[in-house]
Every structure is written in structure tokens, then in C-alpha cells.
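User: quick one
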Amino acid sequence: MSKKENKIERERQEAYIEKCRDYVSAFQSAHGRAPQASVVTFGCQMNARDSEKLSGILVQAGYELTDAEEAADFVLYNTCTVRDNANQRVYGRLGYLNSLKKKKPHLKIALCGCMMQEQSVIEKIRKSYRFVDLVFGTHNIFRFAELLSRMLASNDMIVDIWEETDKIVENLPVKRKYSYKSGVNIMFGCNNFCSYCIVPYVRGRERSREPKDILREIEALVEDGVSEVMLLGQNVNSYGKNLENPISFAQLLQEVEKIEGLRRIRFMTSHPKDLSDELIDVMRRSTKICRHLHLPLQAGSDRILEAMNRRYTKEQYLALVKKLKTAIPDIAITTDLIVGFPGETPEDVEETIDVVRKVQFDNAFTFIYSPRTGTPAAAMENQVPEKTVHEGFDKLLSVVQETAKERAALLQGKVMEALVEEVNEQDPAFVTGRLGNNMLVHFKADRRLVGKFVMVVLDTCHGFYYTGRMVDWLSETRHTRLGKMVDNQWLN
Ligand code: SAH
Ligand code: SF4
Ligand code: F3S
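Assistant: Done. Structure below.
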């Protein structure tokens, strides 16, 4: 979209935000308080980032945000449809919202996100969930202000779903969940069509943002107190290929690295087939890119990988991991695994287990295959019986947990830098910090350290997290033992 078109669309939406403000003022006069809005995220990091954009518009319109759905005057569900259980959660909670609305008739309910891009879902909502006020999809999310104002002026259900879009509207308002870290979309959509996956159908074709828009957004975030960004895309390794002036993801990372004041860079997700040597080299030399790579394997059997349309083999994946670990020895590698893809045998699952043992993933998200209507895999005849799937899943999960534990134990006793993320829910004297490798550590500290970087000794490994203590630099660096540990950490 040209700069001019972008400006016109943005101004259009700003005018609708003004219209919503009139409604909010009237609400305030009638109820003696601002209306409360609850935005609920059901999906991935990209879905969460969309929720921040939706929240930004609501805040500008005068709404107050709340996590308590029962207290809200407007509830917006930002849905996910990657696996069927995501859909079931939405339907279940809609039943609850219906009961709330019976007690509070002015409650407005809206649905958006990936699930709404499915025809069958829309039919079901029109038929069985008639109390919903507004339904929109992933492609017209930038029109939310307009849709909201239409909803506020109407008593009928409004459904507006687009088949696709080539638009990326920049500079709309955003309300971040965290003050110190933020997701940043670098691209939208996906062109890979893995045979089990619905994302390309509900998110459309791959579109990259202009590097200068991304850099400007990150600069503004840093100015606003953000020290860690996560660059988001379904396949970040193919970023920039279709831009008018093509640029590689590795080149983009180098530009992001130059932003002063930014301390940590993460990214999600890397498709193994597109991970370049250039990227490995940029990661190796970087002082800001976290030593963590999420590299979804999905399956270890070549036959299944081929049927999944992943376009790499087990050997190619293993060779890639070897290259990564040689270049960056302290890198943490995490992955996604699917059990029960059509035609998968217990022997195939053994191949996945073999890769888990060889790679020693630092963590792995293990999913049971969920057929998604419209994908090639859902139409395959050789669906695996549930019992076989569960047996394979349990076996894989135990190996995943075992190897992840072994990896985590290696860092016990080390001193590492943590970004303090939040006050511990169970004990407010403790905080939770995130290490560069994405692991969490709990330690005693003042809540005012939230959003700050501190050095922490990882005293005890509890499998998937550590408990530790903060290094008091002024007193403790004088102790040679700890001083040595710290030096070693930097030398390693
Ligand atoms: N773009 C990312 C992943 C997006 S979806 C990538 O390619 O890696 C996140 C994860 O959900 C996938 O990695 C996959 O493991 C899982 N997933 C996707 N479709 C699924 C399905 N139909 N059933 C079970 N798991 C699925
Ligand atoms: Fe889905 Fe594959 Fe695209 Fe990831 S790369 S979003 S798994 S189609
Ligand atoms: Fe994300 Fe779920 Fe959509 S994983 S892209 S929110 S289908």
C-alpha cells in the first residue's frame, strides 16, 4: 500500500474512533463510569500482537481494559483454529458469555481472528450463537474501529469477512501488554501449505512489511521503554523476498541490531528449509540476538515429512542443527512435534524420538494431529486410530521431557543475565526472569526490577525452570569464586 493510501485508511479509522468516543461519552453519562472491554487471545504470538492492536483502538475510543470478562461491557474473542481444541474452547466460553448477556443485556460480544475465516464456523455462529454482535476476520482487522462503530449503532449481528487482502496498514494505535517487551510483525500470511496446516487458508499469502516501517516501529518502541523485541512471521526466513527492493531476513536483523537501546532480539518462526548460512553467521556475530532458535521439526520420518510437504529430510534437519551448534555452541534449540499424522506408524514415531535424542532439544511442544477441514491431510484416508496416537504421544513426550531436563541441568550453577518479567504469583517477594535461552528463573528481588536486566546465579534446576539468586555486583564480584564463575560464563 502506498504512503498516501495508508494515510487515507488511517485517517478513515481515526474518524471512526471519534465516532466511538461519542458512544463512550454517552455510556459514561448514563453509568457514571467508562465502559470496560475485555480482549481475550486464543492463539499464537501473532494473534496476541493483533489483540494489542485491537486493545489500542479500544483505549483510544475511551474504553478501559479489564481481564475480568464478567465485569466487561464489551468482550472480544481473538480466536485461533490451528487445532480443533482451540475452536472448542471458544464455543465453550461463548456459552458462558450467553449467560452473562442474559443478566446484562447491554453486553456486546465480538469474535475475530483465524477461526472466523472458516465458512463452517460463520454458519454455526449465525445459526447457534445469535447473541454475538460482531464477527470479523484476519484480513480486515485494520478496519476494527469502523466495525466497532457500526456495531455500537446497530442491534443486528454484523458479519464482515474478507477472502483476502494485500493491504498492510501502518501506524494504527497499539496497547502493549508488557512495557518492556513487544512482538513486531515483520510479515503476514504463509505460502508453505504444509499439508496438515490451516494457517495459509486463514491468514492468506505471504506479505512482508517494508524494512523502514519495521525499523521505525522498533525505534519508537525502544523510545517507549521496550528493550526486547520478538520479530514475528510464520516463516521469518523467507522475509523480504517479495518486496520491491528484496532484502533477506539476515539483513533485516543486522539493521535491527543497530538500534541503540535495544538489548534483546528474538524471532519466530524459522522454517528449517529456508534457514540460511547468512542467518547463522549474523546470529553468531550478534550481541543482541538471543541464543535461542525455535526450529519446528514436526516429524522425524522422511516418509511423513514428505507427506506433510515440509520439504526437508531427517538428515537435512540433523545437519542443520549440527551446523548451528558448531557455529553457536551455547544456542538453545526448541521445536514443535506432531504425533498421529495420517499414515504414521509406531516406527515413524521412533524416527521422531531418534531426532529428539540426537538434537537434545531444550524444549519441544508436542501436539496430537488435528484434522483441519480443507487441508490435504484431512482428506487422507489412512487416519491413525486414537489409541495408537496416544501411545506414540506419551512415549515421545517422556523422551522430550527427559532430554530437556538434561539440557537444563547443564546450566545449573552458572551466572546468566535475566530480564525480569513479573512478580511471582505465589510469592510476591519473588520475581520471574527470562534468560536469553528462553528459560525462566525465579529469585528473590524487589518488584521495581520488573523490566530490568539483572545477573542471576542459577542455583537449582527444576526441569523446565530454575530457582536462583541475584548477583549483587558490588559485594559479590569481590569474591573470587563467583568472580571466576562469571568470567567463565563470558569466556564460554
Ligand atoms: N509457522 C510455524 C507454525 C505455526 S502453527 C511453523 O511452520 O513452524 C504452530 C504449530 O502448530 C506447528 O508448528 C505445528 O506443530 C502445530 N500444528 C499446525 N497444524 C496442526 C494440526 N493440524 N494438528 C496438530 N498440530 C498442528
Ligand atoms: Fe503452517 Fe507450514 Fe505455514 Fe507453518 S510453515 S504456518 S506449519 S503451513
Ligand atoms: Fe496463530 Fe492460531 Fe491463527 S496459531 S496464525 S492464531 S490459527
